[in-house]
Amino acid sequence: MKEKQSLVSIHDFTKEDILRIMELAADFEANPDQRLLYGKVVASLFFEPSTRTRLSFESAINRLGARVIGFSDMNNTSVTKGETLHDTIKVISNYCDMIVMRHPVEGAARYASEVSRVPVVNAGDGANQHPSQTLLDLYSILKTQGRLDNINIMMVGDLKYGRTVHSLLEALSHFKAEFTFVSPPELQMPTEYKMQLYERGISYYETADMMERMGMADIIYMTRVQRERFSDVMEYERVKNAYILHNDMLADTKPNMRILHPLPRVNEIAPNVDTNPKAYWFQQTENGVYTRMAIMAYLFGVK
């Protein structure tokens, strides 16, 4: 592994890197009290609101024995005075050993990694990438299915702006998954991602009917329609309730099937699904702590 490796895109990790993260996540789940980063300082820079990602990263940092500095509200920073991202990252990288950053602008994490003197972990940049979410999703799939190879995954909802589905698609392409894309025409998976699958010889099926292939799925990956990604409010209103998963829709699904969701949930999964044994999104959030511990330990080279 090269010195000062960042994790900006899932492309930054090879298949071997991904499998090693899975091993480490399992190790941390079995024994979370491993203070391997004692004496380190990690900056948590959230230029965009977040609950699960920020708190799970900060939980992971604390469990590893490091200290956290940073902010969760851009309005409390010098950005409001006109400071550039370049200068913010240059300065903060002098104060810490790693930066975890969420930013609303696509490409901001890559730029930060080029400017920073310490590794940068992308905690989400616009509609682009969210690699730590991808890795915890993979760990959730591995735990529930016992494998990553030959998974049949149905992705539902906002496939145009959803950075979680973009990253997960690219990661699963290492393992020859079979994809079903379910979305309204306005929110279809972007062409460039479908072309990547085509070039790798990976099959996918596109439909607007969620029930059409639900019985084939090992994983149903639900997403919310993200109001903050729409410039046209009327377009959002047209598609916001396109898909709502109810408990009775799961009657003919596979016994091993599990439902994942990157959260926050709005109304795309009805509350009556919560008690179904196939609901897995709350366990998925717990997996995020162990996976993010694994990512940081791996990038610091202590595991």
Q: Which properties best describe this structure?
A:
four-stranded parallel β-sheet, 15% strand, 303 residues, 9 helices, 9 strands, globular, alpha/beta
Structure commentary:
The chain has 303 residues and is α/β, with parallel strands linked by helices. It is 35% helix and 15% strand. It is built from nine helices and nine strands. It has helices at 15-30, 52-63, 85-92, 108-115, 131-145, 163-172, 191-199, 233-239, 281-300, and strands at residues 41-46, 67-71, 98-103, 120-125, 152-156, 178-182, 204-207, 219-222, 258-260. It has a five-stranded parallel beta sheet, covered by helices on one side. A four-stranded parallel beta sheet has the order 2-1-3-4, with helices on both faces. β5, α6 and β6 form a beta-alpha-beta unit. α2 (52-63) crosses α9 (281-300). The longest helix has 20 residues, at 281-300. The model has no long low-confidence stretch (mean pLDDT 90).
Order of helices and strands: HEHEHEHEHEHEHEEHEH
So what's the overall shape? globular
Mean pLDDT, all residues:
90
Number of E-state strands: 9
Helix content: 25-40%
Helical stretch count? 9
Structural category: alpha/beta
How would the blueprint of this fold be written?
Blueprint: H1 15-30, E1 41-46, H2 52-63, E2 67-71, H3 85-92, E3 98-103, H4 108-115, E4 120-125, H5 131-145, E5 152-156, H6 163-172, E6 178-182, H7 191-199, E7 204-207, E8 219-222, H8 233-239, E9 258-260, H9 281-300
Parallel strand pairs: 1-2, 1-3, 3-4, 5-6, 5-8, 6-7, 8-9
Helix pairs in contact: 1-5, 1-9, 2-9, 3-4, 5-6, 5-9
